[in-house]
Structures are given as structure tokens and as C-alpha cells.
Amino acid sequence: MTLTYGLGDALPGGELDGFPAGTSVLIRGPAMIGKRQLAIRMLAAGTETGDGLLVVTTRAQADSIVDELKRSADTFDPDRVGLIDCSGSEDRNRIRDVATERVGSPGDLTGISIGTAKMMKRFEHRNVTDVRHGLVSISTLLQYLDAETVFKFLHIYTNRVQSSDGLAVFTLDDDSHDQQTVNTMTGEFDGVVQLREADDGSVQYRVRGFGRSPSKWSALE
């Protein structure tokens, strides 16, 4: 069982090299700024150490998530990857090497929970004890469900990650919801990696929480 989940080069500048086991991270920022891509890089960094990757996709098609993981990973072992596909894609034939559970709607939280439990059991059978969880994106859940229901789901999920010494990386479009909803969702996580677009059009990030002072804004690329 790992004590720390490394991030490789997912975040430049040395602001964060990794997270203690049991940590839940929120990546938030405007829509289309690259939150999913950053989350994928954080997850894919675990392939170097043989971590399991369990990704819940609520919007992007599962095959595109697999392609992004493969591009971001130094090595890719399909037996250590599991997907929960809530995107509604009808194309079930493009993913042949990665275990995938289909959930009919992002609003079916019971289906998501059952799917993640099946994947965790699959990892257990393969002696994969260190698992990185990703959920992209909370914003899609909020299109189907009220904030209180989504918050309760996140609370249960992050508690399970903590009790199993995993790592959770979730994303949120913070310009798509009112500030109260954003603050409520953010409060369920140990810390935040926040993204913004700078005046010159580049993407910047800062780190808040995790028992440390907020970092300065730095270039993401």
C-alpha cells in the first residue's frame, strides 16, 4: 500500500509532487480550459507505479478517455484500468481491452456506485491495492440532480477513497454554477487545483488547501 501518490510532471513548477494516500482533489475552473486533460495526467502518472485507474466519465465518450490515458501514460496496462461510462454513447465496440461498466445516465448515482464497486472488486482480484479514482465531471451530475444529492454522493465517494487509501481527482466547471453551489462542492475535497486563463491567453493554475498556504498563480504549460 502506497503512502504517497506521485504526480510525475502533471503540474510544473514543483508546487505539488504528490498527495498522501486518502486524498481527494478538485480541479476547478472555467469550461473548456483543460481540467479533464490535467485530471487525466494526474491519473496516468500512476501507471509508473502500477496503480489502478478507475475513471467515471459523465460527458466524454469512454474511448476518448482511454485514448487520453494512453497518450499521457508511460506504460498502459489495460488490466489496471476500469471505466464507468455514463456518457450515453451507443458505440460499445470501440473499447475491447479495458473493462467498462455502462450506466444509462449521469443521474443514476446508484448505477455509478454499483459500477465502481464492481471495478474495485476486479482490482482486488488482480492484487491491485493502490487505486486512483477520477470523475469527469461533477458539473454534468449537477445538470441532472440537485446540489444536495450530488454533495451527499461526493461525501460517500471521498470517504470510501479515504478509507481505502486511494486518490480521487474530480473536476468542476466553476463558471457553470452559482457561487454557493461551487463552494459547497469544493468543501468536500482536501484541496483544489484552480485553473484560469491569463491576459495573454495562457492557462495558469494555483493550489489551495491540503493544509498549506495558497500558492501563487503559475503557468500550467
Which features characterize this protein?
single chain; 221 residues; alpha/beta; Rossmann fold; 9-stranded mixed sheet; two-stranded antiparallel ribbon; 32% helix
The general outline is globular
Total helical elements: 6
Report the strand count: 11
Low-confidence stretches: none
CATH class type: Alpha Beta
Spell the H/E element sequence. EEEHEHEEHEHHEHEEE
> Which topology does CATH recognise?
Rossmann fold
Q: Provide the CATH architecture.
A: 3-Layer(aba) Sandwich
Q: Give the number of domains.
A: 1
Q: For this structure, what is the CATH homologous superfamily?
A: P-loop containing nucleotide triphosphate hydrolases
Average pLDDT figure = 95
Largest sheet: 9 strands, mixed
Structural class: alpha/beta
- Give the percentage of residues in beta strands: 25-35%
State the end-to-end distance. Answer: 31 Å
Q: What is the CA-based Rg, rounded?
A: 16 Å
